[in-house]
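Let us work through a complete example step by step.
Step 1: write down the sequence.
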Amino acid sequence: MRALGLMSGTSADGIDAVLVEFKGNPSKPKWKILNTGSYEYPASTREKIIQVGQGLKINSKDWLELAEEITELNAFAARDCDPNSTAEVVGCHGQTLFHRSVKKSKRGGSLQILLGPLLANILDQIVIYDFRSKDIASGGHGAPLVALVDEALLGRLYGWRGVLNLGGIANLTIIPPKTGIDKTSKCLGWDCGPANSLIDLAIKESTNSSLTFDQNGSFASRGVPKLEIIEKWLGDPFFHLEPPRSTGREQFGSKDLQKRKKQLGDISTEDLLSTLTTFSASIISQDLDNLFRLKNIRLIELLVAGGGTRNLFLMNQLKKQCRGVHIRQINEIGIPSQFREALVFATLSWWHYLGKKINPKYITGANKPILYGVRVDP
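Step 2: predict the structure and record it as tokens.
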């Protein structure tokens, strides 16, 4: 069966599309990527998405028009990737504009903007969308959903395996080994904290919007990270919450960047970028240390995906700080890094079509097995 996955992440740089053929056992499928494509958001659209996500108030007409535009852009990306509409189902995540993590007795929340029925009618195909609502209604965080699928797509090794996504926010999947005393363990997953969100905002601000990301980590590599400040930042209570946990730009966005810049004082752009990038790597390293300290789990391999893999300084910092773990890009095992999340939503839409429920207890914290997404027929 063919499924098309569409994904735009918290970086809001555009839409990734992947056409996949699935066969066999849904829990251990044989799968093959048939085509991929990317559609970059127009600069004005990206700017509006980021501003609305940071608290910009817009009227109801603007909300509707933004939802229509995002839906139409997803349709364009779908047609570009699968021009003959060969997919039997289309899984579309939509664009996240707000995320509220679960806190004590307060329910979580997550807003993805997309007009599912409109997309189904434009494409004349079955669409699965709104993947997070049921999870949140069942007491979960609604994130990170990629961790629900990683084990099925990647399989297990002879030791603990990690998958790290470096998008706007970093998230980790921890896959148990296939043999030994831990083989009955469950897959784990959580949001770590900022990966590119603070870095991207800082470079945009520092270059008066002429740059939107630190290409290859070139600014960061010319600076000197302020290690004492990073050590202090790592004490933030969020980084010491036991998983499941989730976060977004609401917590690690513009306001957070301004607070950190104030703490750093008058420093160069290079030092600022070096500090923020080293901080992102340090969060991952601390999480892996905590994983060993609290659960006696030590990874033998960490596969890295997402836009952050193109930041050479960030990747070098990860390798430096996570010694003893074999770190490599997920491309090396046949999953194109940029399209990993789109592949996840193709898989979730296939599972929804088949009626396959997933138990997300150790990843999102939801309290029952869930059929992810909402189906709409054209």
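Step 3: interpret the result. The two ends are 19 Å apart (CA to CA).
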